[in-house]
Every structure is written in structure tokens, then in C-alpha cells.
Design brief:
The protein is an alpha/beta fold. It has helices at 2-12, 49-58, 61-77, 92-95, 100-111, 124-128, 131-143, 160-164, 175-178, 185-200, 213-221; strands at 15-24, 30-41, 45-47, 85-89, 118-123, 147-153, 170-173, 204-207, 226-227. It contains 11 helices and 9 strands. α3 packs parallel to α5 (100-111). The longest helix has 17 residues, at 61-77. The chain binds ligand C2E and magnesium ion (MG) (2 copies).
């Protein structure tokens, strides 16, 4: 019954996007926000992606959901200052669908949003479903100016060789290394190493899941470029 309800929700747009800022660590400016989908369920209230994304991924509903998210995020972007970029999370299924790049580019054109204002966040796992196809999709999007960010970086199974062959612009350090980096020397070392790796490859590095000021200070000290987390801002409606 949840699948039937979700299908209805995607069709009539009973979904909501909340936006979480990515804050620059040198001057505190926000240049990008990440779109995070929620389902406004008639009886259960606001549901988080963990409750319904797996269902969407197991069915074809993920395609309609991704289209809805992309359209809404680009529409909302037109109401935000021109220097703000938006990041949209992309599922594994989308990255293995042949016409995905064309669909994204058509949507950008339809909405009149420059491709440079869109970043796609993909996980390492999503890149591995069909690596040649994922690479072709990301290359086609990169040629037009869309940026690519590797989400939850450090806990997937992608080889560094494969990653370095892709047009990637940003690494987001997985929350699991960030939250205890002050108590766990191994995690602190991993965070430092990812920042160095990113910078040596000319990539922007973002720390996610920052909940305390000491962790934020530690990220600043290791030279991380941007941070995201409840300390800085929770995901919030566009208004
Ligand atoms: P993600 O892309 O890694 O997003 C970060 C998640 O961490 C979000 O959870 C966010 O609310 C949460 N978060 C942010 N700051 C903090 C913090 O300081 N502490 C803690 N504990 N959590 C924090 P959310 O919104 O529940 O999303 C979960 C995942 O669902 C996302 O992880 C993303 O993989 C996926 N997702 C969300 N929206 C979409 C979407 O539109 N399409 C697709 N395909 N996936 C989505
Ligand atoms: Mg993300
Ligand atoms: Mg993440």
C-alpha cells in the first residue's frame, strides 16, 4: 500500500524539498544549498527519505521522483539569488538510465537555469552500478557545465583510479568520519587525508554532518573548504 501511496504522491506532487546550506569555512558565505526530499504523507506526516527512497529505488517510482525533485529544485532556484547553486542527489538507478543526461539538460533549458548553477551529488555506490554508462552521463553533463559531487565519500567501494577518470568537482566527506574526528585519531587522519587528496586533485572538499563548534574548528584547521550540518543550518523550506 505504501508503493501505491508513493506513486500517488509522486503524481500529484505530495513531496517537499528542504534545503540545507553548504557554508564556506573561510568567510562563512553560503554559495550552495542541497535539496533534500521529504514526503508529506496525509496520515503519517512528514516522512524522511530513509522511509521511502528504498521503495522508490526498488520500483520505477525513482524516475518520476527524480524528475519531480529536479524540476522543483530548478524552479525554486529561480527565486534564490543568482550566486546560489543547488545540489540535487541522484540515485544509482538514474545514473544507469541511458537518457539521463539529456533529460537533465532539457530540464535546465526548459527552466532557463544555467547549467553552472546545478550540482549533482552521486554516491560511490551509484557510480558502480554501470560504470561506463555513469561515466558517459557525467561527461555529457560536465561538457555543458553541470558540476558533480561525490557524496558520502570514503565509505564506498570506488577505486581512486576510476574516480580520477571522472569529471568530478567536489568531495563530500562522509558524516561517519566527521562526527567523532576529535575523539577518534584514525577518523581525524582520514578527514585530513581526504582534504589533501581533494586539493591535490583540484577538488572542493565539503565536510558533512557538523554538529559541534569544535568539529567545525577542526575542519577549518585542516583546510576543508565548506561544511554542512545541524550546527550551521538544518534543512529548511525554501522560503
Ligand atoms: P545525503 O545526501 O548524504 O544528505 C545528508 C543527510 O544528513 C540528510 O538527511 C540531512 O538532513 C542529514 N544531516 C545534515 N546535517 C546533519 C547533521 O549535522 N547531523 C546529522 N545526524 N544528520 C545531518 P536526509 O534528508 O534524511 O537524507 C538522507 C539521504 O537520502 C541523503 O543523504 C540522500 O542520499 C538521500 N536523498 C535525499 N533527498 C534525495 C533526493 O531528492 N533524491 C535521491 N535520490 N536521494 C535523496
Ligand atoms: Mg547529498
Ligand atoms: Mg552525504
Amino acid at each position: 500500500s505504501l508503493v501505491a501511496e508513493l506513486r500517488h504522491a509522486v503524481e500529484v506532487g505530495d513531496l517537499v524539498l528542504h534545503y540545507q546550506p553548504k557554508t564556506r569555512l573561510d568567510d562563512g558565505r553560503v554559495e550552495a544549498v542541497e535539496a533534500l526530499v521529504r514526503w508529506n504523507h496525509p496520515t503519517h506526516g512528514l516522512l524522511y527519505p530513509a522511509r521511502f527512497l528504498p521503495l522508490a529505488e526498488q520500483t520505477d517510482l525513482i524516475f518520476g521522483l527524480t524528475t519531480w525533485v529536479l524540476e522543483r529544485a530548478l524552479d525554486d532556484l529561480r527565486r534564490l539569488p543568482p550566486e546560489i547553486h543547488v545540489a540535487v542527489n541522484i540515485s544509482a538507478r538514474s545514473l544507469s538510465s541511458a537518457d539521463f543526461a539529456e533529460k537533465v539538460l532539457a530540464e535546465l533549458e526548459h527552466m532557463g537555469v544555467p547549467a553552472q548553477r546545478l550540482t549533482l551529488e552521486v554516491t560511490e555506490t551509484a557510480l558502480l552500478t554501470d560504470p561506463p554508462r555513469a561515466a558517459a552521463i557525467l561527461e555529457a553533463l560536465d561538457l555543458c557545465g553541470v558540476q558533480v559531487s561525490i557524496d558520502d565519500f570514503g565509505c564506498g567501494q570506488t577505486s581512486l583510479g576510476y574516480l580520477s577518470s571522472l569529471p568530478v568537482h567536489e568531495l563530500k566527506i562522509d558524516r561517519s568520519f566527521i562526527y567523532d574526528m576529535l575523539d577518534n585519531p584514525a577518523h581525524a587522519a582520514i578527514v585530513r587525508s581526504i582534504v589533501d587528496l581533494g586539493h591535490n586533485l583540484s577538488l572542493r572538499v565539503v565536510g558533512e554532518g557538523v554538529e559541534t563548534s569544535p568539529v567545525l574548528d577542526a575542519l577549518r584547521r585542516v583546510g576543508c573548504d565548506e561544511a554542512q550540518g545541524f550546527l550551521l543550518a538544518r534543512p529548511m523550506p525554501v522560503d
